[in-house]
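Blinded run. Sample ID left blank on purpose so nobody reads anything into the name before looking at the predicted structure. Input follows.
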Amino acid sequence: MNNLLKLTIEAHGGLQNWNMFTNISAHLKVDGLTWIRKQQSGIINDTYVSVDTKRQFASFQPVYADWKTSFEPDHVAALTLDNEIIEELPSPRQSFFNHKRETPWTRLQTFYFASYAIWIYFNAPFCFADPIFEVTEIDAWEEDGETFRRLRVVFPETLESHSRIQTFYIDKTGLIRRHDYNVEISENVASAHYLYDYTEVQGIKFPTKRQVFIRNDDNTSIQPEPVLVILNVMDIVLK
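Blinded prediction complete.
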């Protein structure tokens, strides 16, 4: 494990503490242009989510719904609250073949995207201690008068994510402040994802606000509009 990854993991609460937990649950408020563009406005605005820390699994239950979702690599489903399958989508990533930015998503495609994304957001940086990830420090980045050290992370093919190569920007305290990736399932749109307002829960630090913007070719981001995704996180519990 390189020194920057060690610093980042310690700043977020430490691997020993993290390994005590197997599940994270939270209440999310979600907005942004992505859901409108994909003709799924409101589907995930107000929702509860549960994420595993030892395997890639996530489940959403929107506040308005009498159903929930189940996600793991190569499978996403909508279920009744008694766990009966309503609809399912095996090999969901294949269903995005030839999608453009304006191509609408189905309900299950929407929750496939939201599920793999929230799994990474909640499990980073701790999951990067696993040798299945390739983690290297790259050149620092200057933004808004601050210098960020950067981690380049290559994700394994066994995990679902935005893209195999992603970049995490670390501030002087060791906290992740920006996360870059290309959304392969949406015409490879380049994204700059900012993390704000950290809180500590059971010894682990989480950002409570996230905003995603378009990333330019020169690595700057287009702000303040359009905001592709707005994510507010509340009531975090670890078990």
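Unblinding after everyone has recorded impressions. The chain has four helices and 13 strands.
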